Amino acid sequence: MKWLILLLILCPALAWGQIWNDNFDDGDITDWEMYGDGSWGLVSDGSLCLEQSNMSASDSWAVPDAITDQADYIMKARVKVIGFSADGAIEILCRMDNGDIHFGIGHMTGFDGIYIYDDNNSLIADSMTMSITYGEWYHYMAYLNGDAVKFKVWHEGDAEPVDYQLSAIVTGWNAGMVGVRTSNASARWDDLIIIPANIPFPSLSPIGISILALMLVLTGAYALRRAYRRA
Ligand SMILES: [Ca+2]
């Protein structure tokens, strides 16, 4: 019976297990590779965070060494938009492999908002307008499961939207690295987390729910039998 109790404890922990995270509070960014024309560094902003400070850098990205071939996952990040110098973007990049899927905030002619960009087909797969206040923190949450990708953004302090705001079917990028990117913009990132996309309880399969229910019933029956024998 001990194994049953252990499983009950471990299942939720495994379901919510983190694949990777970095909050930069160790003051170390040597485990990141930087590319392009940006100016990267650590700054303190409540806690230590990663900054790209060159607002005129046209294409600048940073990639953690730890993630090399990730397929299905949820990537969360806190992002502070410092500002844009022209039409530009502040993005997280997913499944990078000579291309990628971009999830980001864009400030472009005729458009201020959030989007999913499909690099394989060079098109914005989904977007919506959203007003962004410079100098304030936002939360990014990107979901990738097979060809289905989703994205939501919310202002820090506001409630997280229940549903993803954007969704698209993006083919061609099955797995790869992750990263953060700016184009003609300056931004700060903190509290990056990658967790499994297809295990957490809200999306637990009917079979998974049945197994958990069965385990609970067995545990209850065992406890009743022990109580009866003691009586
Ligand atoms: Ca931090």
What secondary-structure arrangement, pairings included, does this model have?
Elements: H1 2-15, E1 20-22, E2 32-36, E3 40-45, E4 47-52, E5 60-64, E6 73-96, E7 101-108, E8 111-118, E9 123-129, E10 137-145, E11 148-155, E12 166-169, E13 177-195, H2 206-230
Antiparallel strand pairs: 1-13, 2-5, 3-4, 4-13, 5-13, 6-7, 6-10, 6-13, 7-8, 8-9, 10-11, 11-12
The structure holds calcium ion.
Residues 23-25, 47-49, 190 line the site of calcium ion.
Summarize the structure.
Helices cover 17% and strands 48% of the residues. The protein has 231 residues and is of the alpha+beta class. The mean pLDDT is 89.
Class by helix and strand content?
alpha+beta
Question: Average pLDDT, to the nearest integer?
Answer: 89
Fraction of helical residues: 10-25%
The total beta strand count reads: 13
Poorly predicted tracts of residues:
none
Assess the beta-strand content as a share of residues.
over 45%
Q: Could you give the order of the helices and strands? A: HEEEEEEEEEEEEEH
Number of helices: 2
